[in-house]
Amino acid sequence: MNTYFYISKIFTPIIIPSNFLIFILIILFYLGIYKNKFYFKKLFTIFFICFSLIAILPVGQTLIYHFLEKDFINLSVQKDIDYIFVPSGGQDRLIKAIIIKDKYDLDKVKIIYSTGRPFLNKAQSKDGELKFVKNLIPSSKVNKEDFIFLPEARNTHENFSRLNQYLLSNNEKDSKILLITHGYHLKRSIMLANKYKLQIYPLPSSMASYSDTKGFINSYQKISVISNLRKFDLFVKELISTFFSYFL
Which tens digits make up the pLDDT trace of 115-137? Predict the structure, then answer.
């Protein structure tokens, strides 16, 4: 597990598609355009076209919808639950959990929050998300007693390992758990939950593929190279993480 963590964090900047493509384009530009080598010039053209399409078109958003989020649209809230589980990784997950708890009057249901800092050098990092939830509690309808804070985790696999350990230690392995996390993150989370034989009911906190507009004109207005690249990066990163999680 430690090996997987360190390898994943060290190589993440390299395998992120937008970073990788830009590095390759710089190298191919030097060899193909500057040095005028035909083979590398041809490769530069191919990579440049691919990069341009990913940057201009919503390729990442489309892939996220079809491969990661399609099965989790319009899910209903499972009310007969024992816990709400929120793995670290986004403030919107915590907000959604609090909203659900309040909206459906789940007074006796506690929110299990798996804290975490996914950084190689923890001494020079802070858990801003944990600070956020502790500041959020006084201004919301939930109390500190409504939260169960699990020991710090470094990734999704450890999030579910901590949850499993908590349930085992309290003899509550058969608990029904509402899982709240990002839509693109649900497939991998459910796969890991199944490895621990947990009773999970998924609910997305947000959907990366969701758009509140349709049509060509509206799509044109919303063109964002940065957003398109980020969503493509997100899709590939989640796909790679899911692949490796399958073997853990």
Answer: 776 554 555 556 566 667 667 66
